[in-house]
Amino acid sequence: MGIISFILIGSSLVFPAVALWALWWAGRNGQLTHADKASLLPFDEQEPVGVMTDVVLNRPAIPAAMRRVQP
Amino acid sequence: MSTPASQVVRAALSPRDTPESSDRRAELAEIDASTSGTVLLFFVAGMVWLLIGTVFALLASYKLHAPDFLNQYAWLTFGRIRTAHLNAVIYGFSAEVAVGVVLWLMCRLCRVPLMAQSVINAAAVFWNVGLTLGIGGILAGDTTGVEYLEMPKYATPILFLAFALIAVWTIVIFRFRREKHLYVSQWYILAAVLWFPWLYSTAQLLLVLEPARGTVQTAVNWWFGHNVLGLWFTPVGLAAIYYFLPKVIGRPIHSYYLSVLGFWTLALFYNWNGFHHLVGGPFPAWMITVSIVASVMMIIPVVSTAINHHFTMVGQFGKLKYSPTLRFIVFGAVSYTISSLQGVLSSVRWFSEVAHFTHHTVAHAHWGMYAFFTMTMFGSMYYILPRITQREWPSERLISLHFWCTAVGIILYVAPLSYGGWLQGKAMMDATTPFLEVVKITLPWLKFRTLTGLLLAVGHLAFFANLIWILARRFGPYRQPEPMILASVTPTVPIGK
Amino acid sequence: MNYGPLLFLGILLTLAGSWFGLVLTPNRQLGDLQPNVNTNTAAVYPQPLPGEASQGREIYRSMGCNYCHTQQVRPDGFGSDIQRGWGKRRSVARDYIYQKPVMLGSSRTGPDLTNIGERQPSYDWHLTHLYNPQTTSKGSIMPPYAFLFEKRKIGYEGASTNALKLSAEFAVEPGYEVVPKPEAMQLVEYLRSLKTSVDLPEAPLPKAE
Prior knowledge:
The structure holds three protein chains of three kinds.
Chain A (H helix, E strand, L loop, with lengths): L1 H28 L42
Chain B lengths: L3 H10 L5 H47 L12 H33 L6 H24 L15 H20 L8 H26 L5 H35 L6 H15 L14 H13 L1 H15 L10 H24 L1 H7 L3 H31 L6 H34 L5 H40 L23
Helix pairs in contact in B: 2-3, 2-4, 2-13, 2-15, 3-4, 3-5, 3-7, 3-13, 4-5, 5-6, 6-7, 6-8, 7-11, 7-13, 8-10, 9-11, 10-11, 11-13, 11-14, 13-14, 13-15, 14-15
Chain C lengths: L3 H27 L5 E2 L6 E2 L5 H12 L53 H4 L3 H9 L17 E5 L22 E5 L1 H12 L16
Antiparallel strand pairs in C: 1-2, 3-4
Helix pairs in contact in C: 2-5, 4-5
């Protein structure tokens, strides 16, 4: 039991310490500032925020001439 | 369509088309196209396994209340059919569709095309060969007897090779990403592909190849078993929800910081849950208690995810009418919350004392793996398939049939059976109730469950039909590469806000 | 959270936590358990299964019996396992040290079998029950394992000694008999071997009143 207690107690101190250090480092490194911008990653100019992208059922009647068609 | 009037209309409707956005669109089209063959392979194989798994499921469910049905041969006995069902739907359907979604999402979010597809396609082939051998082996009686790891030794190295290749490839995609910033979904996917091979190799080593002594096996077994759900399927499901939910409704996720909290608390707590499967079992109390505590702590990531999803969706529920992806994803997200909270409750000693060993556990397993995970995967496939086949879904009716059969079917499965299992447990707690009386109490709930299984089967067939149909169209005349928004799909007038 | 190495580190460390706590630690704490030697009688418990019973265990595994039957008795006061007569004491880790694989089970569609060898030692009962559970347990949902038996014409020497004695409702037609195949006998030997009511330092049997 000796060596395993050493490993267990040791790692249960080391792991959280490393985790807290990583958190501090992330803060220092700027990982957590303006992080909200990342929530915009799924969007781009042609599928921007505010436009629904998966209209498959019960489509509203839009004349074919007015639908978005790309070459 | 090039009259001055239509040009004006078109320009007015598409003010955002710039050379840069066209480049971006072309890039995404290229990436989607690069993933298409591989993702299709996984999706089609996965759906075939779903159909096979559904047949096994119906057989197993029926046999539980009609035990004389189809028992002439050993390979048809309940103990083998149930096991074949579990392995077909977990390692066949769920895992293969998960990999398809993982590859598509990773390529898209990293903005990198899928390289050397032949290697991953080979992995898909190995996987299905391994599965066929494994499930055939189970029916032949070569099951290992270890829950969630029943496939015999001659099949599993092939599977492990496939898993390892896919994990490595996903990490390679990540390594060569062109998009510097990381999205939530990518953390979850990266975590899932790093965790799963570790889980699988440890479990195979200590349970099948060189079995550890006595109950140490059980410890590893449930560390593995629970973590397959918590550290492989759950992250993939959450990755899908975190991408498709905002993407479809056109609104970013409500709180990025909540998603950071959700991710790390899931990573921290979920993997300690394993021993909540062993409450009352032959283990030192401290091990069980650790798992119960970790299970209760799961409230933190589950609630933060639920809050995030809810506040993203609030006011947007009208959009459910238009998007099958949204319907399935929202259903999956709500089911994630409910099934997780059911899980927390189940792990607490006073609840476990009654519900352990009953059909409540089976209902809970399906609440998580079907109502959450499977429905989320259906939603993901509805989004991905048109974009990789460059075709629209042929039949709206089949989509609706699929959704309503599976949504209604699974609710009618999991809620009543959870209750029936509780009743079974209460009856078992009373030592004066003869065991055959306890069995009698479960019968109506088991029969009802078989009926709901038929409903689910209809839904699966509807989707499979639509899938074959959309693929058949793909092999038609040569088509031009199209942008992500399919022609005639997205009105540029935003629907709601 | 854009930094790959940081993510990597966190992902690996978090799983390493439970790998230490739930895999390595049980291995250390329970992995070297030895059978107990009773100080009075010098009886050793547990012991590896003898040949026939060990074969029977393979059949138990191969048929998936552990998906309906558990083999773990919960402590007194937690559930009603002991009141139901499923065991005189709770199961402990030492009970399982020779089992490969350990089939604790996770579902009680059927009763717990930890001590079925004590509760029900009769060959005849087990054989007829396996052949058709309805013969002994009407209303049971356990499937019949008739394929572990052979239905054959009675030879000119008369009925075999090990032919099943089936009641009128379940009997086969005149001139035929049902005899167990070796697999059925092995399975029954295994079930008869399931007995754990032995005093252990960590789990003594309750004293008789």
